[in-house]
Design brief:
By secondary structure, the protein is α/β, with parallel strands linked by helices. The protein has one domain: Metallo-beta-lactamase, Chain A, CATH 3.60.15.10. The chain is built from eight helices and 16 strands. The strands form two sheets. An eight-stranded mixed β-sheet has the order 6-5-4-3-2-1-15-16, with helices on one face. Strand 15 and strand 16 form a beta hairpin. Helix 6 runs parallel beside helix 8. The radius of gyration is 17 Å and the shape is globular. The structure holds zinc ion (ZN). Zinc ion binds next to loops. The site of zinc ion has 4 residues, from loops.
């Protein structure tokens, strides 16, 4: 099976609105199935820069009702369906976005999900996971493919109950909003939280993303190194445009110019 994970933007919280980084979300490609998760502001242009064709999107998911996770849902729907000419694709969102004016009539289907629900897309099983965040209806995601399990925490604070659901992940993607030695946040992960989680879950690879201004100042690469040192699990900091093929563990950047913080 072919799998690609592409980061269309690594901004989290305030860094999105200070225009420090794009927040276009993450693409998960399992063979010919393309999932676009959390298309925040700039998702379309970031997709173009990363050679991602929005028309190939099968499933579009907004994990919660914060603008940097769903702002460009309609832009992606328009691109993927050629403005409704092709009635294709699925949109999944939490109940907290039910009133949002998404262009659902352009799509084959759209529905809300709560946490702990399972939805198969051929041989890929998608499961929504609980989070501890300001949007109580939000969810994380676990993709179980035939030979690979990938978990995305979405925005969440640390809680034993939440972390329990990450078990058996080969790849764990953490929205690591704050750096080490930052004051404890109820609703977002810091590098200390990531260390605790990674030690417990022991994935083959951990990837941190969704960086706040404070995290960018601390430098995500240093934070990833420190996390790796303390957990002995390979940990990398996502970059805008980063593409990973986890089954061959090849990591590449589409754009050299983006290869710095
Ligand atoms: Zn959030």
């Amino acid at each position: 099976m072919d799998c690609k994970i592409i980061f269309l933007g690594t901004a989290g919280n305030n860094s999105t609105y200070q225009q420090l980084k794009p927040a276009g979300g993450i693409i998960f490609k399992f063979n010919d199935k393309q999932f676009h998760i959390d298309p925040g502001p700039g998702a379309l242009i970031s997709a173009k820069e990363a050679n991602v064709n929005p028309k190939e999107t099968n499933v579009l998911i907004a994990t919660h009702n914060h603008l940097n996770h769903f702002n460009d849902v309609n832009a992606i729907i328009n691109a993927m369906t050629s403005k409704g000419m092709d009635k294709i694709g699925t949109l999944i969102f939490p109940e907290s976005l039910s009133e949002e004016k998404f262009q659902k009539d352009f799509l084959k289907e759209s529905f809300s999900l709560e946490a702990n629900k399972t939805k198969p897309f051929d041989d890929i099983i998608l499961k929504t996971l609980p989070t501890k965040h300001n949007d109580i209806h939000g969810f994380g995601l676990k993709f179980t493919a035939p030979n690979l399990t990938v978990t995305y925490t979405s925005d969440t604070g640390y809680s034993k109950g939440v972390v329990e659901n990450y078990k058996n992940s080969d790849i764990l993607i953490l929205n690591n909003v704050y750096p080490l030695n930052h004051k404890k946040s109820e609703h977002n992960l810091s590098s200390e939280d990531s260390i605790k989680i990674i030690k417990k879950i022991q994935p083959a690879l951990a990837i941190i993303t969704h960086f706040s201004t404070k995290m960018l100042e601390a430098n995500p690469i240093y934070e990833a190194r420190e996390i790796q040192k303390q957990t002995e699990v390979q940990t990398i900091a996502a970059k805008d445009g980063l593409m990973i093929n986890p089954l061959s563990m090849s990591i590449s950047l589409r754009q050299k110019s983006l290869n710095q913080y």
